[in-house]
Write a structure and sequence with these properties.
Layout lengths: L11 E13 L4 E14 L24 E2 L6 E10 L14 H7 L2 E10 L3 E2 L51 H4 L10 E2 L3 E13 L5 E9 L32 E9 L1
Antiparallel strand pairs: 1-2, 2-3, 2-4, 4-5, 5-8, 6-7, 8-9, 9-10
């Protein structure tokens, strides 16, 4: 049987190379970095992957739909640090602090995670085809160059790719309208993801076994916009324009107390 929200058929594969580095220092500092280069391909999308724009050009040959998967992230870099500040009792500095000063200034820790990921691919569509695929798919026709080419002034939310590279719908010939366009599936790549998370911990040790930890955590602390893919329909007024950001991707700050034993 199939699971709701996923495709019940199809083929896919994923190949990747991963490299990581970890460095631990004696002064309480740990640095980590990892990079993954990968490529996912499939002949079907799923609603969970946000691949609603995909279509099958040939209902008699699903191999023609085999292309970069909607969940493909080609480059993924994540780095982090954890720094247990060496100040307070049992630390490199301030080992002889009195209890009051130790409670205020000792046992602090700061942490950070930087995530950089390239965008996910998406498929352009059009409503100008006189003959559409079995799944109702129709793509635009490009004049020259790459459909993913940046506009002359660079990529902006107002124009993520150069829409002038496509034949206007009113200028399409009958032969072009009888085709499925010449762009193909998954021709474009969406905006990258860039986030920085940062947290501060403070430990209050009652005994060797019992400890209370205060945590202040910020997600996407720079409040960097995490843009969704642009409008993919050539017939739309917003074709090529980004009109929204990912839900819940704005900066979040939370505070908590954690009792450990």
């Amino acid at each position: 049987g199939s699971i709701s929200g996923t495709a019940s058929f199809g083929f896919g594969n994923y190949n990747a190379m991963t490299a990581s580095l970890t460095k631990r220092y004696s002064a309480g500092l740990t640095l980590q970095a990892s990079y993954t280069y990968g490529h996912a391909l499939a002949d079907s999308g799923t609603t969970l992957s946000g691949s609603a724009g995909l279509y099958n050009p040939n209902g008699q040959n699903f191999n023609e739909a085999y292309t970069t998967a909607s969940w493909d992230i080609r480059h993924n870099f994540v780095s982090s640090f954890d720094y247990e500040i060496p100040f307070g009792r049992g630390k490199q500095y301030g080992a002889n602090l009195n209890r009051g000063v130790q409670t205020l200034l000792g046992n602090w820790q700061v942490n950070g995670i930087l995530s950089l990921r390239t965008g996910q691919p998406f498929t352009l569509d059009s409503n100008a085809c006189l003959a559409v695929s079995e799944n109702g798919g129709c793509g635009p026709t490009i004049i020259s160059g790459s459909p993913n080419a940046a506009p002359p002034g660079g990529r902006t939310p107002n124009e993520w790719f150069n829409t002038a590279n496509f034949v206007p719908l009113d200028d399409l010939t009958t032969a072009q309208r009888l085709s499925l366009g010449n762009v193909g599936l998954q021709s474009n790549v969406g905006p990258p993801t860039r986030t920085l998370d940062f947290s501060v911990f403070k430990n209050f040790a009652f005994t060797e076994r019992f400890m209370l930890q205060f945590r202040a955590e910020g997600f996407n602390v720079a409040n960097t916009p995490q843009f969704n893919a642009p409008d993919t329909g050539q017939q739309d007024a917003n074709f090529g324009k980004i009109t929204s950001t990912a839900a819940g991707s704005e900066r979040h700050i939370q505070f908590s107390l954690r009792f450990q034993f």
